[in-house]
Amino acid sequence: MTVDALTDVAGLRVGHATRTGDGWLTGTTVVLAPEGRAVAAVDVRGGGPGTKETDALDPRNVVHKVEAIVLTGGSAYGLDAASGVMAWLEEQRRGVRVGSDPAHVVPVVPAACVFDLGRGGDFRARPDAGTGRAAVEAAAASEAGGAVREGCVGAGTGATVGLVKGGIGTASTVLESGITVAALVVANAAGSAVEPGTGALYGELSHGLVDLPEAHVHEAARRRLAEIADTNAPPPLNTTLAVVATDAGLTKAQAQKLAGTSHDGIARAVRPVHLLNDGDTVFALATGERALDADPLALNDVLAAGADMVTRAIVRAVRAAESVDGPGGAWPSYGELYGG
Fold first, then answer.
1. Nearest to 44 by CA among 269, 273, 237
2. Gap between the Cα atoms of 132 and 16, Å rounded
3. pLDDT > 70 fraction of the chain, expressed in percent and rounded
4. Residue 237 has pLDDT above 90, yes or no
5. Are 319 and 338 contacting, i.e. CB atoms less than 8 angstroms apart?
6. Cα(242)–Cα(309) distance, rounded to whole angstroms?
7. pTM to 2 decimal places
8. What pLDDT does residue 233 have?
9. Is pLDDT of 161 > 80?
10. d(CA 283, CA 43)
């Protein structure tokens, strides 16, 4: 049975650590690879990324597999969450062996952050190593193949998409070959997920899966967003993050191609994308449980599915988000503005 989530790729687990109230509106999400690690790659297209260990994922470099991926709030400060994940992995003796002693390992933990500083009211309220440890412990304790919480949790807690509340979303599919492709996204973009003429979500329009909002509903939503635009400070920095995963056996170069084409999924759901004040970053993970057909073009189905799952995950993130109105600003949810 599938749960339409990243965890449909067997062996992957997802954990969130969420902080809200008393100036907090942020968190961290960890994707924990199966024991033995997963082939990993990355593609960064935003002009203002905040990342850690992404150079290690270049196919020309020595690191072939990773233990975990960290997605976090807190902008560059929040990258400290990866230290807590590394410490936990070291205790489990999981990482690159660097000596004869099994305890001598160096976990490679790529990470990327979104900008959510001050959205809870306190600029200094941001994830740290403790937040990262809480998220990886939650991932390790989760049920294999279990559902993944969506909306305003983990790294999506303080996320916004334009003037609308963003968050975490996830989706999966099984190809005719039996290969699973899935995505988990932190939707936190400077651009908008909402088509301004109709109020429909771009991601749903791209798949032809939408009934357009009634005109009076859209007009009321426009008025509400105009009011917010006059009171909220403009978001100086944002970022959409994604982890796209498959159980196919991919090389590091093939995984990097998957990360790159999956950015198309962001472009279908958010406009504009990849701006100088975005840090759009997509990681790819391949667990290698299923062999990919020897035909070089067999990868195309995986590439197409990766982009589709990113689009679906962004739609689900926006639809699952809940409104926030606090000392750091007001961001109505899409559901508040347009209903179901």
1. 273
2. 9
3. 99
4. no
5. no
6. 10
7. 0.96
8. 66
9. yes
10. 7
In the block, which residue shows the tokens 């771009």? 202
Residue with tokens 């807690």: 157
Tokens 């195309």 appear where?
300
Task: Match 């944002």 to its residue by tokens.
Answer: 238
CA angle 25, 28, 34 (to 5 degrees): 160
DSSP string covering 93-136, please? T-SEE-SSSTT-EE----EEE---TTTTS-TT----HHHHHHHH
Q: Is 34 exposed, middle or buried (0-12, 13-18, 19+ CB in 10 A)?
A: middle
Angstrom distances, CA of residue 222 to CA of 103, 273, 332: 58, 22, 12
Q: Respond yes or no on whether the N-terminal peptide bond of residue 49 is cis (omega within 30° of 0).
A: no
CB burial of residue 112 (10 Å; 0-12, 13-18, 19+)? buried
Q: How confident is the model at residue 317 (pLDDT cuts 50, 70, 90)?
A: very high
Nearest 5°: the CA angle 249, 250, 256 is 155
Distance CA 216, CA 218 (A): 5
Residue pair 119/160 in contact (Cβ under 8 Å)? The answer is yes
